[in-house]
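User: I'm putting together a small comparison set for a docking exercise, and I want a reference complex before I start. The sequence is below, and the ligand is flavin mononucleotide. Could you produce the 3D structure with the ligand included, as structure tokens?
Assistant: Of course. I'll restate your input first, then give the structure tokens for the complex.
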Amino acid sequence: MPLKNRIVMAPMTRTRNSEGDIPNALMATYYGQRASAGLIVAEATDVSPSSKGYALTPGIYADVQRQGWRLVTDEVHRNKGTIFLQIWHVGRMAHSSLMPNGEAPWGVTEQRAEHSDVFAHDADGKLGYIRAGKPRRLETDEVSALVGTFSLAFAHARQAGFDGVEIHAANGYLFEQFMNSVLNTRTDRYGGARMEDRTRFLLEVVDAAVRELGPGRVGVRLSPFGTFNSLPADPQAEQTLLYLAEQLGRRGVAYMHLVYQLMPSANMESAEFKEHHIDHAVLAKVRAAFPGSIIWCGGFTSREGAQAALDTGLVDLIAFGRPYIANPDLAERLAHGWPLAEADRSTYYTRRGEVGYTDFPAYRADSLAAVAG
Ligand SMILES: Cc1cc2nc3c(=O)[nH]c(=O)nc-3n(C[C@H](O)[C@H](O)[C@H](O)COP(=O)(O)O)c2cc1C
């Protein structure tokens, strides 16, 4: 799929959807404002009700959600943008207060994320950050069934008008829980000592996505070497990454989206996004193993920094997360060397509608207003 530039808007949860986890017109405005990015990856979206670890994230399993997303894709396409939807299952990063019928979160094993919080209801029904619940270990046939659930969500994403999907296999959520060689102590075909087994769930879901959308319309996000969300450090992280690079390449996956490690912290609200670029030598091996495009994300705040990363020849596109919050026209600002606006962290995840969301002007409007004033 040809893109108009090498700038990607990174997926970001913004909690502005309507009740029922339904995307709305405000979200259409927000994404439409950012359509000059080469590629927008829309926020992490629940594949099913059992995938919910954070209240106020949107879904793609119900008809009304699909219709809501159609508003978003229409607006982005009207503005000549390209948009993929990031789809996730949080696995053990959940809490019974958000799960259907109050059941336990779904786990690779029964091992709890001991030091990590999710955004759920406390004993008094109040929303806030609370420790992730103790998960129930999924049976083998439940894992296989989940592949079917993803397949349906991919079909919904296509029907909702998305140009493609990004599978969220980063940041300690379900796919990474399966891939981690320390956490995944299962003994069935989805776990244990063999890398082929620990990556089987992800690769089956990738196959389902490719069947539904076509190979050029599927991306995978990974955070190799990450320990966010209580993931144990994985001595086999590099080996797994290179195996995946080769397997994703064989399947014609459009891109691998590599994000640096989030620093260990209790939750997304307090997460520290320190710069931690992946070793260039490792990146070179990924490059050699994977024929598709590579997106690099994390800590890029300037045109010079992004261009220097592209100039290494190791990556093809640069994703920007936080800079996209306050700069809807980030692509133009980088192209022209215009200054960047700063976002207010307290509005990252709020229910305050357009405040800190759609109320950031484009630079030209800004400067013309200043002249007029
Ligand atoms: C408000 C906010 C929400 C985020 N939500 C998601 C998400 O839904 N999915 C995801 O993979 N990463 C998410 N991230 C991580 C970003 O995609 C990105 O990897 C991170 O912010 C580092 O890039 P940056 O330094 O350009 O901000 C989020 C980050 C922020 C700040």
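Residues 10-13, 43-44, 86, 168, 170-171, 221, 259, 273, 297-300, 320-323, 348 surround flavin mononucleotide (CB under 6 Å). The two ends are 43 Å apart (CA to CA).
User: Thanks, that's exactly what I needed.
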